Amino acid sequence: MLDNQTSFKHINVEQVQLGLHDDSFAVIDIRDANSFTLGHIPGAIHLSNDNLSAVLRELDFDKPTVVCCYHGISSQQAAQFLISQDFSEVYSMDGGFEQWQNTYPSTVEIS
Predict the structure, then answer these.
(1) What is the CB neighbour count within 10 angstroms for residue 102?
(2) Within its chain, how far is the Cα of 24 from the centroid?
(3) Cβ atoms < 10 Å from Cβ of 91
(4) For residue 65, is it within any domain?
(5) Residue 101: count of CB within 10 angstroms of its CB
(6) I want to staple 31 with a disulfide (CB 3.0 to 4.6 A). Which of 13, 35, 89, 104 is the partner?
(7) CA atoms of 55 and 46, how far apart (whole Å)
(8) Catalytic residue list
(9) What is the pLDDT of residues 9-28, one digit of tens each?
(10) Is the pLDDT of residue 6 over 90?
(11) Are strands 26-29 and 45-46 parallel, antiparallel or unpaired?
């Protein structure tokens, strides 16, 4: 089993919402481009296979990073990938964007 230094952690939407107020987290959204355009967490960065290299060059590897997907499942694998790329603190958001949208519908940004 992996220890906390080599594995991502879990975070809930309430903790992410609190962290957005003081810019505590970078938020990475791995859903498809159309879904991201139709709505995402404020300030989220869309990450896909097409822009992976560019996004990795721009991110601060020392800033806590939250990965968001549809339901909180795919984000776990993506979070572990970011850990393998030497990000220091990575979280998978439990419940994904669906949980965010249900909990904070007025905060959803549209591109």
Answers:
(1) 10
(2) 12
(3) 24
(4) yes
(5) 16
(6) 35
(7) 9
(8) 69
(9) 999 999 999 999 899 999 99
(10) no
(11) parallel
What letter would DSSP give residue 107? G
How many CB atoms neighbour CB 74 within 10 A? 16
Residue type, 52: L
**Residue 73 located in a structural domain:** yes
Helix ranges restricted to H, 1-111 = 13-21, 33-38, 52-58, 74-84, 96-103
Task: Please write the tens of the pLDDT for every residue from 30-88.
Answer: 999 999 999 999 999 999 999 999 999 999 999 999 999 999 999 999 999 999 999 99
Domain hosting residue 84, numbered range: 26-101
The encoded tokens of residue 93 equal 């958001």
Tell whether 108 is covered by a domain.
no
